[in-house]
Amino acid sequence: MINLSWILNPSAGLSIAAIVGVAFVLGVLHGITPDEHTWPITFSYSVGSYSTRGGMKAGFTFSLGFTLQRALLTTLGFIGVAAIYKTYNLDGPVYIVVGLVMCIAGYYVLKGRYLHLPIDMLMGRKHHTREAERLPMHEAVNPVPLKMAAVHGLIAGWGFGAYASIITFILAPQVPSLIYAPLPGLAFGIGTMCMQIILGSVFASVMRVKHLTVEQMKKIGRVTAGKALYYGGMAFAVIGTLILLFPTLDAVGLSTGIPIPNVNIIGVSTVLVVSVVGAIGFGSMYEAYKKVVST
């Protein structure tokens, strides 16, 4: 029987097999608990795929990028470079970058083209057409750029929490040599991937309870995904900026008494998950559903 307390506080002197096993279980816990670096992004891309298989693919694609990043992170932990996390809080910058990428992906879904900075206008040249600017966001049903999910995984993985601390500072230094250093990160990422694939299929299947047609589910899913990515990205960027300005904000939270990371404290991360998945995600889904069934 797995001792959860020991998994969250692994001892020294572990074998490679034990290190990989603990990292995998930690990844499963990370994937199934409401984490701001995984749930909002998996939800957005999964819902946009509008099918169970598509949702599983979205969860896999995001987690693939995340897994590669975690393998790099534990390698950095082995050689000591990851100690930068002990000196600097990088949550703010990571939130901002994740938010910007979310906005770019969401803008594409809603408008049919990628968001870009109006540098040409600053240089005195003509920007894009005003007709394009007036394209109503809620009418577009462009394909969700699933490849962006992998990019999100690579970026979001730089966010640092309790699980990352365990695999980077406790498990990674215990491997016998540099060649084994990526293993804790890979195992952790695969554990996360398993749960994100399951969650992706669940998120993508939400609309099936209403017995909608494929076309209706496709439109609702893509509109929901676009708005969750676009406006959720704004939320990430705003929170990231606030953390940069007021670093102590990241440490503010209300204890739940549950000794499991991601559910032990109601804080900034919880606000992001609830805002993007709950308020923006399901709010947009309900709005799109009402419009589709009324036409």
Brief descriptors of the model:
295 residues, two-stranded antiparallel ribbon
What do these coordinates show?
The chain is an all-alpha fold. α4 (52-79) crosses α10. It is built from 13 helices and 2 strands. Mean pLDDT is 85; it is low at 119-125 and 127-138. It has one domain (11-119, 132-294).
Biggest sheet character: 2 strands, antiparallel
Could you tell me how far the N terminus lies from the C terminus, measured between alpha carbons in angstroms?
55 Å
User: Which H/E pattern describes the elements?
Assistant: HHHHHHHHHHHHEEH
Pick out the low-confidence regions: 119-125, 127-138
How many strand segments? Answer: 2
Q: How many domains?
A: 1
Helix and strand arrangement:
Elements: H1 4-8, H2 16-32, H3 39-49, H4 52-79, H5 84-87, H6 91-111, H7 119-122, H8 130-133, H9 147-156, H10 162-171, H11 182-204, H12 214-245, E1 253-255, E2 265-267, H13 268-294
Antiparallel strand pairs: 1-2
Concise account of the structure shown:
This protein has 13 helices and 2 strands; from the N terminus they run ααααααααααααββα. The chain is mainly α.
